[in-house]
Write a structure and sequence with these properties.
The chain has 2 domains: 113 residues, no CATH class; 130 residues, Toll/interleukin-1 receptor homology (TIR) domain (Rossmann fold, 3-Layer(aba) Sandwich), CATH 3.40.50. It contains 13 helices and 5 strands. It has a 5-stranded parallel β-sheet with strand order 2-1-3-4-5. Strand 1, helix 7 and strand 2 form a beta-alpha-beta unit. It is elongated, with a radius of gyration of 27 Å. The two termini are 20 Å apart.
């Protein structure tokens, strides 16, 4: 049988001790014990009660002698509180988080990532597309949207890509080849970008001929960059860089001051955690595992 060693105040060190501290009734405990995640169930019930807060939750961990859990989650809790406060103060729409960079910028009080350009290419030309992205980012310091790299998991890919092309990218670099023209998805995005350029009255598309192919009708009037002519007439990447027009630099909102100040030490005696309303308890990105007991 499992052996439970209580604290000096006779508190169990697992979810049952947390249930006692949060005021769960005997009926609550009976119901929680049958759930797949008792700790989360206890916290969900407590979050609905007046007076529940992150600060009190951390105090409960100390009372249960669960400093191991405290140390594991404290920086995550601080980050979540920071996100919560910034979102509340700026009314940030978290549905705007489309790319890996968006959440990081949000933590700094900045708006979602803006791009100098997005890039569209066929899978067969991925190696060259990556070369283009690496050159523009590393040598010319541009921000390029590459959907296979940048989109966060779980979102609707087509919808997110269209939103970034329309609202968060100045240009669309199109890597043309026979394989590109065989992809209906690429042709759809190309037509979409063309319509956005007309609507915004802007030079949206930069066509780059990587391999000889039949030029799409909508691109025939546009001046094209030829990769094979790079050495003969000009430096392909230099011309592409200037075509993207980095002179029109992206200006992101200035960072606000951090909502919280974290001590260099994560000691529970030195770290001060501000009060946060109860809803934030269940919105934390990571909840502690108190489903099993740990004895210090």
């Amino acid at each position: 049988p499992t052996k439970y060693i209580p604290t000096k105040d006779h508190l169990l060190r697992d979810w049952m001790g947390l249930a006692e501290l949060t005021g769960c009734t005997r009926e609550d405990v009976s119901s929680v014990s049958r759930s797949a995640d008792p700790t989360r169930s206890v916290l969900n019930r407590w979050a609905e009660k007046e007076g529940s807060s992150i600060q009190r939750f951390l105090l409960f961990l100390k009372k249960m002698d669960r400093y191991d859990v405290f140390d594991d989650i404290i920086l995550l809790v601080i980050a979540d509180i920071n996100d919560y406060k910034v979102t509340k103060s700026r009314n940030v729409d978290t549905s705007m988080f489309l790319t890996m960079k968006d959440r990081e910028l949000h933590r700094q009080g900045l708006q979602p990532q803006q791009y100098h350009a997005s890039i569209l290419y066929a899978d067969d030309d991925a190696e060259f597309a990556v070369q283009v992205v690496n050159t523009l980012e590393q040598q010319y310091k541009l921000a390029i949207f590459l959907k296979q790299r940048d989109l966060i998991g779980g979102i609707i890919e087509h919808e997110a890509t269209m939103k970034i092309i329309a609202e968060r990218s100045n240009r669309l670099i199109v890597i043309l080849s026979p394989a590109f023209l065989d992809c209906s998805e690429n042709k759809y995005f190309l037509s979409f970008a063309q319509s956005i350029g007309i609507e915004q009255r802007s030079r949206k598309i930069i066509p780059c001929i990587f391999k000889e192919c039949q030029i799409p009708y909508e691109l025939k009037p546009l001046h094209k960059l030829y990769y094979k002519d790079s050495d003969m007439f000009c430096n392909f990447f230099e011309k592409l860089y200037r075509s993207v027009d980095s002179a029109n630099a992206l200006v992101l909102p200035r960072s606000i001051e951090n909502a919280l100040t974290v001590s260099n030490s994560t000691s529970p005696n030195l770290l001060t955690v501000p009060e946060v309303v109860s809803n934030s308890i269940t919105e934390c990105s990571s909840l502690p595992d108190l489903n099993t007991s740990s004895n210090p």
